[in-house]
Amino acid sequence: MAEVIVGIDLGTTNSEIAAFIDDNVQVLATAGEQIMPSVVGLAADGALLVGTSARNQYVLYPERTIKSIKREMGTDHQVTLGNRTYSPPEISAMILRTLKTRAEAVLGTEVHKAVITVPAYFSDAQRQATRDAGQIAGLEVVRILNEPTAAALAYGEDRQGARTILVYDLGGGTFDVSLVYVEGEITEVLASHGNNRLGGDDFDQLLLDFVHERFVRSGGVDVHTNPRAMSRLLRAVEEAKKRLSFEPYTRIREEHLTERDGLPVHLDLEVTRTEYEQLIRPLLEGTLDSVHRALTDAGKRPEEVDEILLVGGATRTPLVSMLLEEKTGLTPRQELHPDLCVAFGAGVLAARISGHDIERVLVDISPYSFGPSHFGILNGMPSEHCYRPIIVRNTPLPISRTETYLTMVDNQEGWQVSVYQGDDEYALNNILVGRFIVEGFSKVPAGNEILCRMDLDLDGILRVTATEKRTGLSKHITIEGATTAMSEAAVAAAQAQMRSLFGQDLEAGAEEGEWSLDAEDELDELDELEGEEEATEALAESSGEATKDDARDRRVQISEARAVLERSRRLLDTMNNDDREEAISLHERIENALNTSDTKRLHTAMTELADLLFYVEEK
Ligand code: AMP
After folding, report:
1. Cβ atoms of 236 and 254 closer than 8 Å
2. If you take atom 17 of ligand 1, which residue's CA is the nearest one?
3. CATH of 5-198+289-365, one of 3.40.50.2000, 2.40.50.100, 3.30.450.20, 3.30.420.40
4. How confident is the model over 441-448, as a mean pLDDT?
5. Residue range 62-74, pLDDT digits in tens
6. How far is the CA of 204 from the centre of ligand 1 (A)?
7. 339-358 confidence digits (pLDDT tens)
8. Ligand 1 atom closest to residue 313's alpha carbon, by position in its atom list
9. In angstroms, what is the span from residue 77 Cα to ligand 1's centroid?
10. What residue's CA is closest to ligand 1, atom 22?
11. Bigger pLDDT: 546 or 457?
12. Exposed end of the chain (fewer CB within 10 Å): N or C?
């Protein structure tokens, strides 16, 4: 049996341990916890606390709790715990020892060797202090590994030829960005920048101040001087912050947070993602300066970067990916949990040293994107087939995400939710995987918020729930096998369905809106229609039962095409010769696509014509 070597991410805020099990590297969990806070403390009875229990007592008993010891590694600083003082490696050793014990319980064997990661900017003294900590904990440190290099190993970047990787690492208390050059076994950190006083803890503080101020303004009580209440509030806002990575808004509720005149005062308020993003945006924009500086130092242009890897729990905030994408034009990789990525990489190296051939870590991801179609503007024109995924492909499973949609008309009673699999912004170019109707909405003006939540589990079961936010009225469907590749037969059936929806029945001379029986049957199977007999309204307008609605989809596309043609013909006289020629050739392409019922070509030509008209009208 190969020797057991573990990989450890010894972080400022949290630590994780990974090992090779069942032919793969895994981050180990005890009691469902893969992430252990890097906090050490003494309980009232003198017992040593490490991890979550120590973190939980921090706000109440800071004098007997130590956090962020990593910042002191390599210095002569001593910390006091109870009536003794300790060096930073001794405190780090307590964290390592706890991880080691947990790993031994899971693996059922003793662990004596480890690969431990450190930031790329760590000095020799800091690296030596990390080795010392391992030794005190009873671990031989077989390799000290740079964190960005670990991230590259976790993604298997060393198996893909020469690559330049940008590793953006935003944890609880530190931020750093590194450019790493990887070629086979050789990895080189080209440049590294950052701010070792910036991270998710700062976001918590901003949200805490925001929530506290709103609480006081709305008739609450100032609890700044009440450590117990502040500790509860801090924990509540951190949880709320995490939820806001997956939901557009969240409620923060703390029963009996404090008292006034002997009576309990509760906190209950809502925070939106937009409000939260406004608070943290300036800090995140600051991190982009570091990205810029790292690129400049390495003498690289953004186009020379092959991949962006996200590391650190705080990069789960969607605004991080959005800003990076805006700056570099690259979509950051999301296949690994950012808070486990470095531990995975340490585990990969550890497994290789002990003789296993690990390509890269395998985790369950969603191979497809999923979302509902909705009403919006597509290529400058209103369309009810707009599409943006809620679950984006390559997201690790399980995943739950929610987005908000708005009703389009006053007193809209319901929404027919069409769930698609794919990435095309035009819903009908994706695969319809399910459809259901939610009805009974309140009689209110347009703009009623409807939440669509998607939960996708490890077994590929997709649950889609639509909820009217103001009342909680909701309905859902469950789609089995959403992540399994469609069989050839199923793809053929879906294509046949599309053809009969948009093409061949027209060619065969059938009336618009009529269906062949086969197509209806296929659609029924695909849709798992619920309550088909109950007619309801679609998101934007009233409609009949589902199959008719699909026929209407086709009619809508045809009428959209006719509307663009008409608009274009009206503008022909105002165009210069070149534009007019282009417009006329596009008219022909649209007419041809209409005649041959080629939806894809129709869509492309309509898009091009809409762009041209936009340009002509702007002139
Ligand atoms: P790390 O040091 O990499 O473990 O990152 C810890 C930081 O990530 C803490 O500030 C956490 O609150 C933050 N974090 C963890 N999960 C999320 C999430 N879902 N959304 C935003 N921040 C998160």
Report:
1. yes
2. 242
3. 3.30.420.40
4. 93
5. 889 999 999 999 9
6. 10
7. 999 999 999 999 999 999 99
8. 8
9. 27
10. 314
11. 457
12. N
